[in-house]
Amino acid sequence: MVDIYVDADACPVKDETLRVAARHGLKTYLVSDGGIRPAQDPLVELVIVSQGADAADDWIADRIQRADICITNDIPLAARCLERGALAIKPNGQPFTEDGIGMALAKRELMQGLRESGEITGGPKPFSKSDRSEFLNRLETTVQAAKRQRDRLESGHL
After folding, report:
1. DSSP string of 24-82?
2. What is the pLDDT of residue 109?
3. What angle do CA 152, 70, 68 make, to 5 degrees?
């Protein structure tokens, strides 16, 4: 079975994720350091981790398996998930890929340095309706791809 892991603290698409997961009957873990109401669904597990910079990331990265899905904006977490054979997408629907993760990590380091030096003071663009729509489309295709990958794994073809 494919599981979905949500880096839930600042995730704007928790409800959309839960709707897609319910449609496919997938177990979903909402991982947070608090402040989220538990869903009344046996397929949704709210995981409260200790507060700390990487506590939720560590919990997800330690448990995610090949062909599972992670929803996060966190590039280092996405890299850890990809290393384990999982799929990762941003809340705006943009996928993290093996080919692009190295460049994303490098850009993150560069931007962090520019922000720390005061060269850049703005943040990311606001989350939009089109981002939400793109996420729903991408999550659906990602779930389909993950299910196919899991089927191949279970049949011994991977």
Report:
1. HT-EEEEEESS--PPPS-TTEEEEEPPSSTTHHHHHHHHH--TT-EEE-S-HHHHHHHH
2. 72
3. 20
Half-sphere exposure of 47 (CA within 13 A, CB side): 19
SS3 content of the chain, % helix, strand, coil (to 5): 45, 15, 40
pLDDT above 80: residue 121: no
Q: Are 78 and 57 in contact (CB under 8 A)?
A: no
Phi, psi of 44 (to 5 degrees): -115, 125
| Cβ neighbours of 134 (radius 10 Å) | 17
Domains and CATH numbers, the chain: 3-154 (3.40.50)
Q: How far apart are CA 114 and CA 124, in angstroms?
A: 14
Cβ neighbours of residue 56 closer than 8 Å, sequence gap 6 or more: 7, 8, 9, 31, 32, 33, 49
In this prediction the pTM is 0.85
pLDDT in tens, 34-53: 888 877 889 999 999 988 77
81-112: pLDDT as tens digits: 999 999 999 999 999 987 877 677 667 676 67
φ, ψ (nearest 5 deg) of residue 89: -135, 155
Q: Give first-to-last CA distance, the chain, whole Å.
A: 16
